[in-house]
């Protein structure tokens, strides 16, 4: 069946991406809650039609680690894309609130001149057992896209890893439509790069893109470190400036997992963060690695972890509001 706008009841915004907003909607005929992404494109009807047709392949992307696609349509120059609603949001936000480090007590007033507790730099991030579960899902999802659909994701980063309160972890936003990629490319100027060194090199030299599946493996490794730290891995002085950042990725040593993680975890990440694309691990190797094998035999309370991360988020938002209200 095809989804149309008049079947949808619109709810709140779930987030803003580089290309448009994502809204929660209810598909009235089926009573299914969905997330609807609006992508504004200045394209003619023929090109918009091509995009809708190319997106159709997504109906075949059915796997436990992939956000389900329900359908797409366009109105005027906007493409609307309906997908499974993931009620815990994306890992880029959860990683900040999902640390096992106890939060500072909210009622202790900070010493003079110090920022309020919720503004203090937190060293947290995702604990190792949760991290293994999350990146295991990501690796299986990426392997599925490659083996079953011959799709390279091209945009692996914590924002594109969605989670629900049942503890499921799924990938979204992968590149299936050549026309859509082409139309979006011009506006793609993210300030935190997850691009592999070979991709940065070929883009800066304007040579034909040397994008292979192993470029996604680099982005997977970088996302893993980011989730472990709770923030983007390259130091702030580097990521405040696009040129410095790209230089560091191409010429500097690759980032590593911090102390406190097991040797297996560190080794797994280092197999992703190999600067020579040809020497990087394959998905198969990554799945067989002890870091992900251990995960298979362990019980991890993902439901509890997600619930606590969301509670922390709500509490910190409330503290921030109270602080703003009282000052
Ligand atoms: P970007 O363009 O940066 O990849 P998106 O436009 O895909 O970002 O998404 C923006 C935000 O919307 C995400 O960070 C996430 O919090 C939220 N979001 C996206 N898709 C969904 C979904 N299916 N369910 C719930 N929230 C979502």
UniProtKB/TrEMBL annotation:
One of its GO terms (biological process) is cellular hyperosmotic response. Keywords: ATP-binding, Kinase, Nucleotide-binding, Phosphoprotein, Serine/threonine-protein kinase, Transferase. One of its GO terms (cellular component) is cytoplasm. Residues 99-111 have a biased composition (Low complexity). Residues 99-119 are annotated as: Disordered. Residues 8-292 form the Protein kinase domain. Pfam families: Pkinase (PF00069). This is mitogen-activated protein kinase kinase. It comes from Jaapia argillacea MUCL 33604.
